[in-house]
């Protein structure tokens, strides 16, 4: 699957070793004031009992800008790749890929799972080729993103912490 998202900062959803991951609370405490942005938390609490209620959290991706398609096509052209094939191997939805769900104690993640949109999975299957065998299309940073800043300059809510737009 070609990487079609416009990712604008470093993303962290889990910190730990191969057997233990920190809870979201502990991860946020560890990263506070530093240059790494955790993925957004869409919901915290007792999980909804109906799948339909859980799926209301699937919304347009915060990691895609309004002009992500034009940026994608620009990158495909820059890399001298076949645009038609690139779109065929890409999830062209504005929606987030899915949900990353965790069961946590106060200190650590007890269990985790990922729910992925069916049409996203179908796009992978329709690509006819594993993403590791497809050409690499670079993601782009959002305007005003500071990759090597000692502190975050963007966040998921307003994307700009320094007052610029």
Quick structural gist:
The protein is an alpha+beta fold and 165 residues long. Helices cover 24% and strands 13% of the residues.
Report on this structure.
With 165 residues, the protein is α+β, with helices and mostly antiparallel strands. Helices cover 24% and strands 13% of the residues. It contains 5 helices and 5 strands, in the order ββαβαααββα. The strands form 2 sheets. Strands 2-5-4 form a 3-stranded antiparallel beta sheet. A two-stranded parallel sheet has the order 1-3. It starts with 10 loop residues before the first strand and ends in a 38-residue tail after the last helix.
Summarize the main sheet: 3 strands, antiparallel
Gap between N and C termini: 31 Å
Uncertain residue ranges: 1-11, 160-165
Nearest-angstrom radius of gyration?
17 Å
- Helix fraction by DSSP (H/I, runs of at least 4): 10-25%
Structural class: alpha+beta
Could you report the average pLDDT, rounded to the nearest whole number? 80
Strands of the largest sheet, in order across it? 2-5-4
State the shape: globular
Continuous helix count: 5
The proportion of strand residues reads 5-15%
What is the number of beta strands?
5
Order of helices and strands: EEHEHHHEEH
């Amino acid at each position: 699957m070609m990487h079609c998202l416009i990712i604008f900062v470093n993303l962290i959803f889990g910190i730990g070793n191969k057997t233990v991951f920190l809870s979201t609370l502990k991860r946020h405490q560890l990263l506070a004031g530093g240059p790494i942005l955790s993925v957004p938390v869409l919901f915290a609490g007792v999980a909804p009992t109906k799948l339909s209620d859980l799926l209301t959290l699937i919304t347009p991706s915060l990691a895609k800008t309004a002009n992500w398609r034009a940026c994608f096509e620009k990158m495909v052209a820059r890399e001298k790749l076949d645009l038609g094939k690139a779109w065929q191997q890409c999830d062209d939805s504005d929606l987030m890929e899915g949900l990353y769900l965790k069961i946590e104690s106060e200190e650590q993640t007890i269990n985790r799972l990922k729910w992925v949109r069916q049409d996203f999975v179908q796009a992978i299957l329709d690509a006819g080729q594993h993403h590791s065998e497809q050409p690499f299309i670079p993601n782009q940073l959002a305007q005003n993103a500071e990759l090597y800043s000692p502190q975050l300059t963007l966040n998921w809510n307003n994307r700009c912490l320094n007052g610029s737009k």
